[in-house]
Amino acid sequence: MIAGDGNLKLTNDMQGKNTVWSTEVAVQSPNNLVAVLLDVGNLVLKDNSSGDILWESFSNPGDTFLPGMKIGINLKTGEKRFLISSKSNENPSPGSFVGGVVAESAPIIEAFIWKNGNHSYWRSGQWNGVKFIGIPQMNAVYLNGMGLLSNSQEGTWYFTLNDFNNSLIRFLYVSPLGSLQIINWDEGSNDWNVGLEVPDNECDIYGACGPNGICNKDKSPICKCWQGFEPKSYQQWNRGNWTDGCVRRIELLCDKDHNKPDGFLKLSGVKLPDLSQYHKPREITEEGTEESCRFWCLNNCSCMAYGFVTGIGCMFWTGDLMDVQSFSYGGEDLFIRVAYAELGKKKKNRSKVIFPVAASSTFIIVCTFLVYGFLRWRVANRKGKTREALQESDNFANAINPLRETPKEKAGTNMIKQKDSLIFEFKDGKLHNGKEIAVKRLSSHSGQGMEEFKNEIVLISKLQHRNLVRLLGCCVEGEEKLLIYEYMPNKSLDSFLFDFGLARTFQKTQDLGNTHRVVGTLGYMPPEYIMGGRFSEKSDVFSFGVLVLEIVSGERISGFQNDEHLNLLSYAWRSWCEDRVVDLIDKGLEEDSICLVEVKRCVHVGLLCVQENPADRPNMPIVILQLNGGTELPQPKQPAFVFQSSRDDSSHGQGSNSDCKKCSINEVTFSATEAR
């Protein structure tokens, strides 16, 4: 409610006496105020006459971060915009976790989640202008994720969430348990799913291994001290309490002994330390290089470590290194300063490893030669047995009688590799007499034995048809199994038999995804794939619907021409709406052979499959039931890519469902038995 003082208030009684929450803004003229919920989700309190906004929810976020909101800090005014978790899913009052941005070392920015006030709970790592380098999963998520709006003169650093013109529906959420989640809307399942959640393991918790310790979730125990350091308290460390961290074993000499200079230990693929000890020297004004960072750090005794990140430049640390984590992928390089004596230990350890490795390598090489010799003997011993096994079958002997015109001494030459698979490979070439042949070579990994090979030859040799490729001969020697076919000068039909355009775009186990590259057969690709790069199981349903309409009309969608309609879908839609499905039927079919009821059902199902909204299309099991007459058919909505000529625009320019008001739904089903 809007109270008498002009503030928007939330009360727990009808009289408005017990205020639970209020906007608490100073209002000069409270009589002309309205509260409006905008389409982007922003609740505003504004003056209805002037349009001035007095208060808005986007400037006072709760636990949710929507596209259009800004989370960050203004260093000049001190304004900070944070996300605050709720106590529970049932209790929306402020909880224990706060998410926000730290920019004390601007332009180096990090995101934090704090627990119970100012205790660091999770840290994102530094922002490199593209992503947070402490979140390896952000490599994929950032394509549709966050961006930084900064103004160094005004001292503002705000993060925003991209919505890409509403093509993706998503938001950020701080849960009551302290996790930061990116929630995406899945059109296929009509449900929300979690695209990214941090922290998601023990090492993501801030300072899990204490100062100068490194955490690796794939190791046991997860914490260890890097070279040159040891646990501060062995007793606590061995108990699994790593919060005390590690300390140096040997003091740094720095410039005390020029003959024994300090060096650097390189840690690859890690989350760089917290920037609370970050230092950027005045001498390095630009981004610099890794060599310039190393030179400055080595000549400054206060420098304990350095790193170089593209997009940020040189970073230095002058104290304990906190919150370092090792990643299985991603991460950056961290160079830690260690004493000269520690570098010597590393070299000694290398020499101790060289001899065992060399001895092991020699042993492996000798064993390899022995195994190779045994396999050669085994193959040679099998050659004689293979031919005898082929002659044992009478059926095989009869099958190869007409194939003996291709003797072994006329083997093919000029073999060219054509096609590979895990089971076989195809090559073509010529015999010595000039005849072109195609050779199918079975792979040793196919799992096909001699008995299966004989059965294949017997079966193929009995199939003689003008539309089938003839088997000319076979060859078996040792593990080699070859089938010789007649050559097809006009190539295979696979160049004319095409898929729906998406079969090569995603993996067999993938049912939903995004792509930024349009690949497919024009006319069969659904609108959401062409315009947004999104595909799912409903994409092939669209392509199947186009194929059904092609079969009924006898027209290819890419070559369809009509005076009134620009494509096949427009023509099919208009024919259906005007109850003139007969005009759509292939003119080459005889009228006596057409079952109009079944044709109308096919057109009906085809139009259901090519509807513009993927959610309106049926899935393939439903399509099968609909084609078989096993279910009632709903009224189809307008298909995608419906275009009319200009002379139809006056009467049918909208192309909406209203064009089909005079159509009736055929609820009568017929079943016919047809032998296969």
TrEMBL record:
Record bears the keyword Glycoprotein: yes
Record's keyword terms, sorted: Disulfide bond, Glycoprotein, Membrane, Signal, Transmembrane, Transmembrane helix
CDD domains given in the database record: EGF_CA, PAN_AP_plant
Alphabetized InterPro entries for the sequence: Bulb-type_lectin_dom (IPR001480), Bulb-type_lectin_dom_sf (IPR036426), Kinase-like_dom_sf (IPR011009), Pan_app (IPR003609), Prot_kinase_dom (IPR000719), S-locus_recpt_kinase_C (IPR021820), S_locus_glycoprot_dom (IPR000858)
Any matching Pfam family: DUF3403
Sample GO molecular function, one term: ATP binding
Topological type in the membrane: Single-pass membrane protein
Gene Ontology CC: membrane
Subcellular location(s) per record: Membrane
Segments forming domain Protein kinase: 324-641
Residues of the Apple domain: 254-339
Main location as per UniProt: membrane
Limits of the Bulb-type lectin domain: 1-58
Transmembrane segments: 353-375
The protein's name: S-locus glycoprotein
